[in-house]
Design goal:
Elements (H helix, E strand, L loop, with lengths): L2 E8 L5 H9 L3 E6 L5 E5 L1 H8 L8 E6 L5 E11 L6 E8 L6 E10 L3 H4 L4 E4 L3 E6 L8 E4 L8 E3 L10 E2 L6 E6 L29 H8 L1
Length: about 220
């Protein structure tokens, strides 16, 4: 995994008030875990977003250094919080790591290939699992793990156990867990035939009652 540099600062005070004041300066509160005790720090949110831009995995290996100090530490981004309205980054958690000790992280999955059931019978590929938990050394964290779905027919299921883990990476997610499947194509809706409307029966002709001949002649007199 590519290693990137991040400058951090120690911060004083915790809670909503200090956090709001910190954000007004263009920085956000963060915490660095992994040492003897968590360290409250401040970081530039734009720098964090720049580091993860273009990467499918949010688990980036960072070379962290305090502003004005030459000492560096290795860390990963463990968690990020975003404002639900503005979607701005408002908090981050960093985890200090040792390069010679395995760590557990989540790695995204990416499907590759075109499933037979999609190509030949118009099935629909459904990705059920988006990431898996793995254990590996920090330098071996993969960007993604590929799921080759090219042999799937309609109704087939691709499981975690079929994933090919990169060298040095051990997948921890249950191997029986479904990753992807090919569903049957959606049935096309057929319009119901419109029933023929029978013509309305013609109204019977109303005939004027014919009066007796004697009555007509009587009126002429």
């Amino acid at each position: 995994m590519e290693m990137r540099a991040l400058t951090i600062e120690r911060r004083e005070g915790t809670g909503k008030g200090p956090a709001r004041r910190l954000r007004r300066t263009g920085r956000i509160p963060a915490v660095l875990y992994g040492g003897a005790s968590p360290v409250s720090i401040a970081v530039n949110p734009g720098e964090i977003l720049r580091l993860i831009h273009g990467h499918e995995s949010g688990t980036q290996l960072l070379q962290v250094s305090f502003a004005g100090a030459s000492e560096t530490r290795m860390a990963i981004i463990r968690d990020m919080q975003f404002d639900p309205v503005s979607e701005a980054l408002i908090h981050a958690d960093l985890q200090e790591v040792a390069m010679d000790k395995p760590i557990q992280v989540a790695v995204p999955l990416r499907h590759v290939g075109e499933a037979i059931g999609v190509r030949d019978t118009k099935g629909i590929l459904e990705m059920i699992l988006r990431e898996v938990q793995v254990s590996c050394l920090p330098a071996a964290i993969p960007e993604v793990i590929a799921a080759d779905v090219s042999e799937l027919h309609i109704g087939d299921v691709f499981t975690v156990g079929q994933l090919a883990a990169p060298e040095g990476v051990r997948i921890l997610t249950d191997p029986r867990h479904a990753v992807a499947t090919v569903a049957p194509p959606m049935a096309e809706e057929v319009a119901a035939p419109v029933a023929a409307v029978a013509p309305a029966p013609a109204e019977p002709e109303v005939l004027t009652e014919r009066k007796p001949k004697e009555e007509v002649e009587e009126k002429k007199k």
